[in-house]
Amino acid sequence: MADYSQRDLAEVPRGMELLHDPLLNKGTAFTQEERDALDLRGLLPPHVHTQEEQMARVLQQLRRMADPLDKFVALNALHDRNVALFFRVISDHVDEMQPLIYTPTVGLACQRFGQIFQRPRGMFISANDRGRIAQVLRNWPHKAGIIVVTDGERILGLGDQGAQGMGIPVGKLSLYTACAGVHPRLCLPVTIDVGTNNETLHADPFYIGLRQRRISGAAYDGLIDELVTAAREVFPDVLIQFEDFANHNAFRLLAKYRDRICSFNDDIQGTASVALAGLLSALRVSGGMLGDQKLLFLGAGEAATGIADLTVAAMVAQGLAPAAARQRCWLVDSHGLVVNGRTDLVEHKRPYAKDHAPIGDFPSAVKALGPTAIIGVAAVGGAFTREVLEDMARINTRPIVFALSNPTSKAECTAEQAYQWTGGRALFASGSPFDPVKVAGQTFVPRQGNNSYIFPGVGLGAIVSKARRITDDMFMAAARTLALLVSEADLAQGSLYPALSRIREVSAAIAATVAESAYANGFAGKPRPVDVLADVKSQMYDPRYSSYV
Ligand code: NAD
Fold first, then answer.
1. What is the pLDDT of residues 281-299, one digit of tens each?
2. Atom of ligand 1 nearest to the CA of 378
3. 278-282-284-288 Cα dihedral, nearest 10 degrees
């Protein structure tokens, strides 16, 4: 999708103003004809570079830097100058760049946000804006199609980062564009600054946010409600993605808004979809049925209950009764197996409480319950011990082992351990990247169950179909589509996900299936086009330059 065509050339700013518009600037790649037509003569050095040459220049600059945070700053500066070149670099080198613009580097960037701050990106809305949020949102120069919003209370595994959590919506929206071609003009990162309980930040002279403790209760809910209402008033079709809210707000906000507006929570629902896709891929190898699986989760938070909820929905869609489906999902939290009779269970865990004797630890739960799959989402590094993995291999011909906790130090086991201790029989996926592993003469290529396989395509599908809701059916459809895109060659080498280099193709397919769900279930805001996939592809942003003259 080009920014400007010959037809609307009259609207293109001229001269220095054009060079300073990051969405339009091409730097030294402006052609001789464009330089004449757009009053650029003399403002650029004479040689015209191609975008490929510019990209090579950026890459050699980045690769000279040793510190990932320096690379993060350099990439941000590039985005501030030339959005198309930024996305060309990211899209063409997604394996190398994703860790720089998102996890793990973005975590450090949030912690140091005030120190590395250069130019604001996105919108900062604070508790002081109560009563005028719609007016504030009108200061945004574009018509937003998707907002990713955080209140900064649970940034990755780093806790409360206050307004410095802004790195997350910015990074996530970059992935929307890089992975699914959501046009950068449609992307609005938002931080709602409700204060921070991180005292270190209050004392930090470079801190960018309000130096006060977090507001809570009715004041907090009122502010979020005003933001949601104002966003929909100013940008009527906008999709709102809640990101990195703490448990106590994440589940509440999702429940409050999911059936009222076009919104979702990636930590809960995106994670669920990518994990379900991994399960479906694993079952392609083992030949098992989803409804016959017994899932044992280590952890009972946003990721665990999100995955369990969507897996239950998928089992129900295959004909299992809801109660029977829930009976297939077992949770272990920091107090042991989630069972009826425990008095400490918060709302989101209760549907999974079982009539079973208490079990205090995970290895005992594996022995007692005999799961077909273990899913680690408690951020307890090394929790899938040799004993656990050997038990899984004893119980199952092809044990499913998902060590999803991040960062790598929190992974429940390494890829090597998973394959080694199951005699090469584990169907393994991880939250953090692991290199290929050679076990018993076979080379395994484990892949990351990365949320970026799912959310960019879901967002694109919602935008393209003007969806009014994001439903479980859409996340299930996304999971099925992702699992089907895993090739036989991928499966043969132990990969439960496709290569990340195919991400634009994957996202387009997911967007089409999400849009189909919207059209079929009455959630679309426009009639179904004849060719849904072609419609999706026609709306994907292409970072390669188009000609202005
Ligand atoms: P969360 O804080 O919502 O949940 C953590 C859960 O772990 C809580 O239920 C807690 O009770 C439980 N827990 C803590 N210590 C425990 C212990 N010793 N034994 C058993 N349970 C324990 O966090 P979350 O959002 O659910 O994320 C959890 C982990 O999953 C993180 O490491 C995160 O990085 C990872 N994650 C990975 C992906 C992915 O790979 N795609 C996606 C989302 C989250």
1. 999 999 999 999 999 999 9
2. 7
3. -120
